[in-house]
Amino acid sequence: MALGHNTTCILDGNDMVRCWGVEVPEQYKSVSFVSIEADGDTVCDVLTTNFSVVCLGNERFHQGQLVYNDTMPSACVTKGNCSCDFIVGSGTLCGNSDVNGGEELIVCQPCKLALNASRLVVGNGISNNAAAPSSGDAGKKRKLFEVALGVAGVGVAVLAVAGLAFYLGAKGTIRNVCCLQVGP
Question: Which UniProt keywords apply (predicted)?
Fold first, then answer.
């Protein structure tokens, strides 16, 4: 997920970019991406096919301008060090190393997070189709207001009693009330 200024973009389950607040150009709507980042009103993605960086948003990148070719999407490691899988073809960017016993260096694929889409709510607050608050919401708000008003009333009463006790104590009306002596 990438959050920018009035812009939210995600990589869906097929690694395709979906955005709210910035239009994804037609040529990138069915293309797979490795990663996605946002800054301000610009969103940049790394293509899975050739590791090129494409940026969207902002007048400068309106049509999804190609910024860099053959970009490293992450650090190179040996195949055995990937927690999930590796990005196919990333070895061409890393090369081989005799230091690691000849094992090919690659870039790890980010692990997929299993999301329960039925529990996700995504909104930007500007939808014309937003549902009106139900009568249950109005009842909850009224009950919350009544509770808050009651708490405030109790607070005022406690302050009034404390003020009266302080006033009477200062006048000398209340003396030795708290402590009765028993015995001679």
Answer: Membrane, Transmembrane, Transmembrane helix
